[in-house]
Amino acid sequence: MLSEVASRLKITIVGGSIPERCGDKLYNTCCVFGTDGKLKAKHRKIHLFDIDIPGKITFMESKTLTAGETPTVVDTDVGRIGIGICYDIRFTELAMIYAARGAHLICYPGAFNMTTGPLHWELSQRARFLLNDSYMLQLVRLLEILEPVMWLGVTQPL
């Protein structure tokens, strides 16, 4: 679907994130489609989010997902883009790698919970921008996925 839209509208699309099965492993993956509709890059989330705050939230991505291993930088018609997913934003080194590799824009589609998200979502965005002199693109909105967990920022096409 994203491929068709990118081709029809002649735009670059950074998809949100989707589960990707590769052999016996499951990854949280973001796909980037070029103006011709072809897959230009695929980023597998590097930093998995495990949290257990008694009485508030327990969420263990590592029980289901496998961490990606490679930073993703893709050249597009709109410039060089670095890709991260959600919790990847908390790790300064990843953004520094992207800036060193010439990324002018860093995209982090994500869904942060309402327990920890408000504490660091905006702050992390500003920090990555200031430290790396790169534009940041993120989607921020509230989404209730599972009662009573509220999520800040939802992964979907940007």
TrEMBL record:
<dbReference type="GO" id="GO:0006528">
    <property type="term" value="P:asparagine metabolic process"/>
</dbReference>
<dbReference type="GO" id="GO:0005739">
    <property type="term" value="C:mitochondrion"/>
</dbReference>
<dbReference type="InterPro" id="IPR003010">
    <property type="entry name" value="C-N_Hydrolase"/>
</dbReference>
<dbReference type="GO" id="GO:0006107">
    <property type="term" value="P:oxaloacetate metabolic process"/>
</dbReference>
<protein>
    <recommendedName>
        <fullName>CN hydrolase domain-containing protein</fullName>
    </recommendedName>
</protein>
<dbReference type="InterPro" id="IPR036526">
    <property type="entry name" value="C-N_Hydrolase_sf"/>
</dbReference>
<dbReference type="Pfam" id="PF00795">
    <property type="entry name" value="CN_hydrolase"/>
</dbReference>
<feature type="domain" description="CN hydrolase">
    <location>
        <begin position="1"/>
        <end position="158"/>
    </location>
</feature>
<dbReference type="GO" id="GO:0050152">
    <property type="term" value="F:omega-amidase activity"/>
</dbReference>
<dbReference type="GO" id="GO:0006541">
    <property type="term" value="P:glutamine metabolic process"/>
</dbReference>
